[in-house]
Amino acid sequence: MTFKYGKLSLAILSVAVMAGCSAQKLHWQNTKSVAYTDVVPEGRSSVVIYRQDGAIEGPTVNTYINGEYLASLQPNAYRQETVCAENQRLYAEFTHQDPGYREKAKDGTYYDLPVNAVSFFKVVSHNGRPALQAVAPEQAKEELKGLPEQTHTLARVDHLKSCPKVLKKYNLEASALFKFNRADYQNMLPKGKQEIAEVAADIKQNLDKIADIVVVGHTDPEGNDAYNLKLSTKRADTVKRALTAGGIDGRLIKAEGRGETELLIANCRELHPKNAKARQMCNQPNRRVSIVVHGTQE
Question: Pick from 55, 58, 72: which is nearest to 144 by CA?
Fold first, then answer.
């Protein structure tokens, strides 16, 4: 009997504890009244995505960076995250409107994020679906006044913070570097050679702090995918050659081409389906070579 009584007492105690817990009101805090910060870790970028009331009708909007979940934004809320200072693909979709989250793995728009700075994007309606629009800092600061931070879910983009520290970035238009559809050193424009010489001179001022330099070629989406990849790679190799001619140790430089995989403007054909000249002008930002200088770990 004593043993049974002991078990009964334990059971009653357990019920009492559970009753006490259930009697307490549990609050799930969706937002936190805190402003975004202008402080950015050295060599990184910061992204603020916000949704204003009335911007779009519908449920919460899931936001993603490079396919990784950031936040589910309700109206009048924002989310901020530290990311790598490089091309990042941003995407938004209504909650439960993307079965299996398939689209977030490939869709979105690339943005070349500035180092040591905050970039702002707001949720807008594009044919009734959510999209992200880049916003100038001055406008964003006004629209963010009083908006709380969305906190009810955990971001999954932490691994993006482990990227190399960026000292400087240089983005050069291909049209200023090369003759049209050319990639070799002989067909570099004098203006382009001068521009790269100036970049090399700037880089040499901090050689003791440099871990490596990555040169990346990009093209527009016109033409064959394989050809575009080859063209972007050749252009990156040529810019590397020009940097070494400017006195940079070639062993520090890695050159690679990414073809049309990281478009800054992805809808030029949609905007100008029958006007090749207008489409070429629209695609100009996509035809570029970026030079990213990574710093040593201190």
Answer: 55
